[in-house]
Specification:
Layout (H helix, E strand, L loop, with lengths): L14 H5 L8 E2 L2 E2 L1 E2 L10 H14 L9 H20 L8 E4 L2 H16 L5 E5 L8 H10 L2 E5 L9 H7 L4 E7 L11 H10 L3 E5 L11 H4 L3 E5 L10 E5 L1 H6 L10 E4 L4 E3 L13 H17 L1 H20 L4 E3 L11 E6 L4 H10 L2 E2 L1 E3 L4 H5 L6 E5 L6 H18 L2
Helix pairs in contact: 2-10, 3-10, 4-5, 11-14
The structure holds pyridoxal-5'-phosphate.
């Protein structure tokens, strides 16, 4: 629905006023208005986040947890406040369960190198889906090689919907950890985490959730999901690059060895030995990414103000519209669930005669940014008998007229290649 001032209001988001917060959306690319549809890779940043970074460096900059001077105390307070904002955002029971990392990849690696290193032995298995990002495949492959464990995959159907029955049989009493994407960055599929968590817990395994594509786009409640670990990146949810989150249940985190050693993560050091600080600092060796924690706090504030239910509704509305418009071309096949209500705002597609890289380059000439390639999910993309796909992915500032620009852009590219 469009109100009298032309704003989209039907999904609870005022997209025009949101767009005004994003300076980059004023940019021209090759003389055209920027249409940014590469949000699954990284999102743009609003003034509020950019300002939180400059404010931090102009007014607060100091190291944390070490000083008695005012700037250090303010830096520490802001850094810890951002942690508690993140905890509230995902309904974590305790703020010390939030570990700052560099990104989702580091959070996944941390669990593989600590919890799994300590708990997986030869003959055990680790279970993942066949639709994972490389970040949720390679750490488990390496761990399985090292331990003599088996890495198992469970299947999905041609629409990209997980075969729960198969999953229930693949997960067995030798499963130690199940690590699953909440939402596929290629197919858009939203996976049934609570059901999988139930099965994992029944066999005594833990479940790790790769929430890189869910936390930015939908309400995520770690307690409702019944997850044990959950990972996401700030840069995919309006925040800065270089900072991410690992959430874990306190009982698991407490038993895990540190990931890195150095300052801040110790309680006491002698020439002979050392012991470890309390959570979350045991996992945060060295000077952390303080400025970007402030920026992440500002991103969480921005999204909380919009309301994650509204964000999700807006993206579902846009996705349903985009699928209908893209499929009207007849030359394009969309990967993933046919039913838009079963997916998030990620649409990967394959043109029947134009290579995704050619399409992406031609669209760029029209100011339209999409992603092309294997999307860091080579095994999945290859399972569709292609080596690359094009992908449009949406966020809070995207509009139906931008979807129209994409579809017109594809048509124009067809005209160019068929000349
Ligand atoms: C589902 C999924 N998992 C993990 C990652 C890795 O995120 P990062 O590069 O921020 O570590 C991505 C990034 O695209 C992703 O989409």
């Amino acid at each position: 629905m469009i109100d009298s001032t032309g704003n989209t209001v039907s999904t609870g988001l005022n997209v025009n006023s949101i767009r005004a917060d994003f300076p980059i959306l004023q940019r021209k690319i090759h003389g055209q208005n920027l249409v940014y549809l590469d949000n699954a890779a990284t999102t743009q940043k609003p003034n509020q986040v950019i300002k939180s970074l400059t404010d931090y460096y102009e007014q607060t900059n100091a190291n944390v947890h070490r000083g008695v001077h005012t700037l250090s105390i303010e830096a520490t307070d802001g850094y810890e406040l951002a942690r508690s904002k993140v905890a509230d955002f995902i309904n974590a029971p305790r703020s010390e369960e939030i570990i700052w990392t560099r990104n989702t990849s580091e959070s996944l690696n941390l669990v593989a190198a600590t919890w799994a290193e300590n708990n997986v032995v030869a003959g055990d298995n680790i279970v993942i889906t066949a639709m994972e990002h490389h970040s949720n495949i390679v750490p488990w492959q390496q761990l399985a090689f090292k331990k003599g464990a088996e890495l198992r995959y469970f299947a999905h159907n041609s629409d990209g919907i997980i075969d729960l029955e198969h999953a229930m049989t693949v997960i067995d009493e030798r499963t130690k950890i199940l690590s699953v994407t909440h939402m596929s960055n290629v197919l858009g599929t939203v996976n049934p985490i609570s059901e999988l968590a139930g099965r994992a817990h029944d066999v005594g395994a833990v479940i790790m959730v790769d929430a890189a594509q869910s936390v930015p786009h939908m309400p995520v409640d770690v307690q409702d999901l019944d997850a044990d670990f959950l990972a996401f990146s700030a840069h995919k949810m309006l925040g800065p690059t270089g900072i991410g989150v690992l959430w874990g249940k306190v009982s698991l985190l407490e038993d895990m060895p540190p990931y890195m050693f150095g300052g801040d993560m110790i309680l006491e050091v002698t020439y002979e030995d050392a012991n470890w600080n309390d959570l979350p600092y045991k996992f945060e060796a060295g000077t952390p990414n303080i400025a970007d924690a402030f920026g992440t706090g500002a991103a969480v504030d921005y999204l909380s103000r919009l309301g994650m239910k509204n964000v999700w509704r807006h993206e579902q509305d846009l996705t349903a519209y985009a699928m209908e418009r893209i499929l009207s071309l007849d030359t394009v096949k969309i990967l993933g669930p046919k039913d838009p209500s079963m997916r998030g705002g990620v649409i990967s597609f394959i043109h029947d005669s134009i290579h995704p890289h050619d399409l992406g380059t031609a669209l760029d000439q029209q100011g339209i940014a999409i992603r092309t390639g294997h999307h860091c999910a080579m095994p999945l993309v290859r399972s569709y008998d292609v080596v690359a796909a094009a992908r449009a992915s949406f966020y809070i500032y995207n509009t139906k007229s931008e979807v129209d620009a994409l579809v017109n852009g594809i048509s124009e590219t067809e005209g160019y290649f068929n000349r």
